[in-house]
Each structure stands twice: as structure tokens, then as C-alpha cells.
Design a protein that fits this description.
The protein is mainly α and 364 residues long. The protein has eight helices and three strands; from the N terminus they run H-H-E-E-E-H-H-H-H-H-H. It is 73% helix and 3% strand. Strand 1 and strand 2 form a beta hairpin. The radius of gyration is 49 Å and the shape is elongated. The N and C termini lie far apart (117 Å).
Length: 364
């Protein structure tokens, strides 16, 4: 029993020693910032006590006693009350002051998203109205604006483009076939010349045929130059000049559908009952109708001007190209080499020499 009392008294003494050590550590310990740095770095400051318990080192670091003021970072003469420096725990803190800069930067993105949404909404309404107008026209339930004179010119242009495209296709085929003919004549002339050297008894005959084929090959290259110039000019007329005008025609036709769609909308609202809710809708529909009417009238004038200029340009180009094609073909098949060369000079066509390619960097 006495031994048990000794153990209890020793345990109480150890508890008292631990409490005394803890109080001393709290009184003499450093600032919290210094403590965190010491813990992270693992260094032992001057004044720290190191004890060994059960053969294990034990470190006691000096700690400063925390003051009663919960905001020790404020200077003593700042004059800022505690209620302003640290809000209560149950108060709602506004993030507008903390994140003001971030919110300010996000405004342009919000405005951009809003404008995109408005544009998408306007596009959806416009597409719906145009689709409804087209369906009504095809089903015979809607009316459409028709300019008979302009529609006739547009249809004529499309028919002309189709026919010219067929001429271009045939011209390219003829040029391709004639190119192979010229290459065959060149090879045939070379073979005749080679046989003339190996057959003394037929040397004159082979030489005559060789010279004839070489002459035809030379004239054929001149004709090929004229035909290539012809097809290139026709291709420019069809796929650039006419296509540019037809692109404006497509814009005009789309504007016509929009014009009729909003015209029908205004007419339906005007025939409806007059209510306080329908008056703003009618005014908005009239405003959009006038906008699309101006767009439609402008594109109609543009189409008329482009059609006129296209017709004048087409006549000039085709007059020159048809004269070139006729003179070159007739001169070639009649064997008139002088007339064929004069035709190319008349239209300022320069042939590419067979060895006119620039030398490679190895040859330089």
C-alpha cells in the first residue's frame, strides 16, 4: 500500500512538472510567425531548451504570451476600432470590395455574351420569318414581290452562264486532244529523222516527212497558245465576272424574301385589333420593314447596274476571243504560218519557249 502511494505521488509530481513546463513555454515562446518559420526550417533558436526523456530529445521553444487584443497587427495609435478592423463571425461579408477588380474585368465578357445572345435571337426570328415566307410562297398561300424585267435579265444571265460553261468544257477538251496531237507529231518527226540516217535509200522521203511533221508541230504550238488564251479568258468571264454578279443576285433574292416576310408581318398586324399590346409590336414591325425595304431597293439597284456592266464586258471579251479563235484555227489548217503568227501578235499573245524554265539552284 505504501508502494502504491509512492507511485501516485510520483505521478502527481510529474503532472505538476509538465504544467509548469507548459506555462513557461507559453510565457517565453516567440511570436507565432517566428514559431511557424522555426517549425518549417527545423532550426532551434537561442534560448530553446532541449531535454532528453526516455533517451529521446525533447525540444521546448520559447513562446510569447498572446496579448488580450485579438488584433495585434494593428499599431497602437492607428485609431481604428476593433469593430471596423475585424467583423464579427456571424456577419455577412460583401465580396464586391474584395473582388471588385475581377468583376470589373468580367464586364466585357458579360457584355459580349449578352450581345451574342441578342444576335442569335434576332437571327432566329429572322430565319423563322423567312422560312415561313418561303413555305407560304411554295404552297401558294403567300404573295411575293416580282420585278419582271429584272427577273428576266437574271434568268438570261444564268442561261448564258450554263451555255458558256459548256463551251469552256468543249474548248478544254479540244485543247487537251490537240496537245496530244502536237506531241505525237513531234515524236513522229524525230523518228522520221532517225530513220533517214539509217536508211540511205529512203533518206529523202524520210527527211521530207520529218520536216513536215516538225512544221506542223511548230504551228500546232502556236495554235495551242491561242487556244489556251481563249479558254483562260472564257474561264475568267464565267467563274469570276459572271459569278460575282450572280453572288449579288443571291443577296438580292435573300433580301427580297426578308422584305416580303416583314411586309406580310406588318399587313397581318395592321389588320388585327388595336390593343395597347399590339401597338408597340406594330411600330417595331414597321421599323424593321422599312429597314429591309431600303436594303432590298439598294440590292435591286446594284443588280441592275452589274447586269448592265456585265453585258457590255461580255460583248467586248467575246468579240475579241471569237475573232482570235477563228483566225488561229483557219490559219493553222490552211497552212498559213505567217497569218498564224500575225494573229498572235495582233492579240499580244506570247508563247512560252520550250526551254524557258529558270535554271535550278543546282545549275546556278
Amino acid at each position: 500500500m505504501a508502494q502504491h502511494d509512492t507511485y501516485v505521488s510520483n505521478g502527481l509530481q510529474e503532472d505538476d512538472t509538465f504544467e509548469q513546463d507548459l506555462n513557461e513555454m507559453l510565457r517565453e515562446g516567440p511570436d507565432l510567425n517566428d514559431t511557424s518559420s522555426n517549425v518549417q526550417s527545423g532550426a532551434i533558436n537561442k534560448g530553446d531548451r532541449v531535454e532528453h526523456m526516455n533517451n529521446q530529445p525533447r525540444i521546448y521553444m520559447k513562446a510569447h504570451v498572446l496579448p488580450d487584443d485579438p488584433s495585434p497587427s494593428l499599431p497602437p495609435g492607428s485609431g481604428i476600432p476593433r469593430s471596423q478592423s475585424m467583423p464579427p463571425a456571424n456577419s455577412n461579408i460583401s465580396l464586391s470590395g474584395v473582388q471588385g477588380e475581377g468583376i470589373g474585368r468580367s464586364k466585357p465578357f458579360t457584355q459580349s455574351a449578352s450581345s451574342k445572345l441578342d444576335n442569335f435571337k434576332a437571327w432566329s426570328v429572322n430565319t423563322y420569318k423567312c422560312t415561313k415566307q418561303l413555305l407560304a410562297e411554295r404552297l401558294g398561300k403567300g404573295s411575293r414581290t416580282v420585278d419582271l424585267e429584272l427577273e428576266s435579265k437574271i434568268e438570261t444571265l444564268r442561261d448564258t452562264q450554263r451555255k458558256y460553261a459548256n463551251v469552256l468544257r468543249l474548248s478544254r477538251a479540244l485543247t487537251n486532244h490537240f496537245y496530244h496531237v502536237v506531241q505525237t507529231q513531234r515524236l513522229l518527226g524525230d523518228d522520221f529523222a532517225d530513220l533517214a540516217q539509217k536508211s540511205p535509200e529512203l533518206q529523202d522521203e524520210f527527211n521530207y516527212n520529218s520536216e513536215t511533221q516538225k512544221t506542223l508541230c511548230k504551228n500546232g504550238e502556236i495554235l495551242l497558245g491561242a487556244m489556251n488564251f481563249f479558254t483562260s479568258s472564257i474561264n475568267t468571264l464565267i467563274n469570276k465576272t459572271m459569278e460575282d454578279t450572280l453572288e449579288t443576285v443571291k443577296q438580292y433574292e435573300a433580301a427580297r424574301v426578308e422584305y416580303d416576310a416583314y411586309r406580310t408581318d406588318v399587313e397581318s398586324l395592321s389588320l388585327g385589333p388595336k390593343t395597347p399590346q399590339s401597338v408597340p409590336k406594330t411600330e417595331d414591325a414597321k421599323r424593321k420593314f422599312h429597314f429591309h425595304k431600303e436594303k432590298f431597293d439598294k440590292l435591286r439597284n446594284d443588280v441592275g447596274v452589274k447586269l448592265q456592266f456585265l453585258e457590255e464586258n461580255k460583248v467586248k471579251v467575246m468579240h475579241k476571243q471569237l475573232l482570235l479563235f477563228n483566225n488561229a484555227v483557219s490559219a493553222y489548217f490552211s497552212g498559213n504560218n505567217a497569218k498564224l503568227e500575225a494573229t498572235l501578235k495582233q492579240f499580244n499573245i506570247k508563247l512560252k519557249a520550250p526551254n524557258s524554265d529558270p535554271p535550278s539552284w543546282l545549275e546556278k
